[in-house]
Design goal:
transmembrane, 298 residues, zinc transport, Alpha-lytic protease prodomain-like, three-stranded mixed β-sheet
């Protein structure tokens, strides 16, 4: 039988995001995207429109990315209090966002390759059918953007700003919306002005924009996955504050254990008796999102 003392060190590691609402949003957008994907692939195959068929498969990669996000939410929720994970499952969210960003890069690369091929070898397009289905896809994309749109996109509540899954999903539907707008523009120019080369050109432009969004998301999520430290100026301020309390920092590490939670490990030394609680208060002053603190006193 375990003594009561054997479990005193156990504390909550539930540092994930309360993502129930975001998870519901992504599920709705997943089904909308999947339905339009099937419609575009079917219509593209029937009409012989390679542009529409390619856009359908493009949306298919986004459906797969949404599935990654749904899995990330479910996994993080299932293991939120699992002690096998030293700092909880907060990073699963960033891992899902990173995977989705990689999927976006692959989509952009495929779009560039296909667009270059079509510039070199122009193909006939059934403009009427392609335009109708592209407009339907655009309407669904607008609906998806509205569903995933949150206050943080216009300067309000910043909850979703820290949720890389919802951010990745938002970028996916923005990418779909952008490519739909560019496709419709290119199809209209091709139909009424004979500028068929605009279709592959717009594909390249859209791919470059998607690549830029992907890079930003990869950079942001990888900083959490790779335990990037906080900026040096904050560490210097913490050091100065602790020096004022007659102690010296021998070693310090501060990193994110989730998108909105941090952990800190530091070793301090002093010739005077030290109270760890006062240093925790100092750390909290500079790191309000600090959820896990370990202090070694010499």
């Amino acid at each position: 039988m375990k003594s009561d003392n054997s479990i005193q060190w156990v504390h909550s590691h539930d540092f994930g995001i309360d993502s129930e609402l975001d998870e519901k949003k992504i599920k709705i957008v997943f089904w909308l995207t999947t339905v339009i994907m099937v419609l575009e692939i079917g219509a593209g195959t029937w009409s012989g429109s390679m542009a529409l068929l390619a856009d359908g498969w493009h949306m298919g990669t986004h459906s797969a990315a949404f599935l990654i996000a749904i899995f990330a939410y479910a996994y993080a929720k299932k293991h939120a209090n699992n002690k096998d994970f030293s700092f909880g499952t907060g990073k699963v969210n960033s891992l899902g966002g990173f995977a989705s960003a990689i999927a976006l890069v692959i989509v952009a690369l495929m779009m560039i390759i296909e667009s270059v091929q079509r510039l070199l070898e122009p193909q006939s397009i059934h403009f009427n059918e392609a335009i109708v289905v592209a407009i339907i896809g655009l309407i669904v994309n607008f609906a998806s953007v509205y569903i995933l749109h949150d206050d943080h996109h216009h300067g309000g509540h910043d909850h979703s700003h820290h949720d890389h899954n919802i951010k990745a999903a938002y970028f996916h539907v923005l990418a779909d919306t952008l490519t739909s707008v560019l496709a419709i523009l290119a199809l209209l120019l091709g139909k009424y002005y004979g500028l068929t080369w605009m279709d592959p050109l717009m594909g390249i432009v859209g791919a470059l924009v998607i690549s830029k969004w992907s890079y930003g998301l990869i950079k942001e999520s990888s900083e959490i996955l790779l335990d990037k430290s906080i900026d040096i100026s904050t560490l210097e301020k913490i050091s100065d504050a602790i020096n004022e309390n007659n102690a010296i920092i021998n070693d310090i590490h501060v990193w994110k254990i989730a998108s909105s939670h941090q952990a800190a490990i530091l070793a301090i030394s002093s010739n005077e008796p030290l109270n760890p609680e006062q240093y925790k208060i100092i750390l909290k002053k500079f790191l309000p999102n600090l959820s896990h603190i370990s202090i070694e006193i010499n």
